[in-house]
Amino acid sequence: MKKGYIIVLVSAISFGLLLGFSQPIFAIGKVNVDGGPIPEADWMVKVAGAELSEDHSGVDTWITKWYGPDKNYSNNGGFAASAPKDLIDLGTGGKLNQLELSTVNGLLKTKNTNIVWEDGNGGATEWEVFEIEPANSHNMQKDDGVTDNFDSYWICVIEAKKDMKAVMSPAHDDHAQIWINGEKWYNNPTWTGAAQQVDFNIEVELVKGANVVLFRCGESGGDAYINLHFDDDTHKAVKYYPDKSDDQDSFFKEVAGALSVEPEDKLTTTWADIKQ
Question: How many structural domains is the chain composed of?
Fold first, then answer.
């Protein structure tokens, strides 16, 4: 009886350990991209690595609230043609660009800098907060009615309590580019196959305080989705913004605490500067 009890006990412990180790692997997948950020010379080179085709539809930590232009850049000539162009620089007359937009200073500039694209490309825009459904294969479309041949920009702020490494998992259709804190971490001109399907799990670096994530996706036709989540440990350790906010004013009020924490060696502005 004692021997049988020990066997059962060992089996139960082994099974429990197996579940404990397997769940995070299911949740974040295999890290197959590291060593970033991407050097400037390779900014437009497709991310290296074998595509995983992982189904992350069971993940419940997809980021659902974003901040960005209330219109998409339309008539882009196809994502292959538009991807190398800095559409933020183009629409602001050089007052702001993609790289700067992924920093705290660039984010703050959106309070007073609107994008004005040509009339055929979307025209004047404002900055707004959006909520998307991760399972929706057309969640990248905004209220401007554009369904094909457009580029879309999405921003979120991640507040971290310390410098840390994290794993981000994007899903997108079509060409995706991701910047964090003024550095490019992801470039992939190939759609991932489904709204919650992930091909690359990318190890990135977050700094203490506010981390600005800029996610751009260029679309040509068919499905148009943009999704992102981070690994479970990161999700438990950080705060994401927008959270409760639903417009630009409430977004900046909500994120004020995060922006007042100054990460080392990064361009930042405190809340006192924001109010000025």
Answer: 2
